[in-house]
């Protein structure tokens, strides 16, 4: 079975590290981006099975990033999980409308994240 690839987009290096360790420990390959703009530049047509993105980031926020990802034919159907400190319903709705499939609030437990990832990751 080939490894599935998950992209993590967050401006916090320590959070990317925690998520990356959890995902790699579960057998996933990980691509990291420190904001929406750098993450978008890394989406060059390779298969990405899931994206985990923060909402509040410099240069390009998570909602704008998700909208941009959904415009790319290769990633139109890639599920996106928002992992953020934001818990307001209007933000969640905005994320959903942009194309996010799930919303998790920080702080989170790695096993919680893995549960969501396993449900949503593309076959």
UniProtKB/TrEMBL annotation:
Pfam families: Response_reg. The modification 4-aspartylphosphate is found at residue 54. Gene3D superfamilies: 3.40.50.2300. Residues 5-121 form the Response regulatory domain. GO terms for biological process: phosphorelay signal transduction system. The keyword Phosphoprotein applies. SUPFAM superfamilies: CheY-like. Keywords: Phosphoprotein. This is Chemotaxis protein CheY.
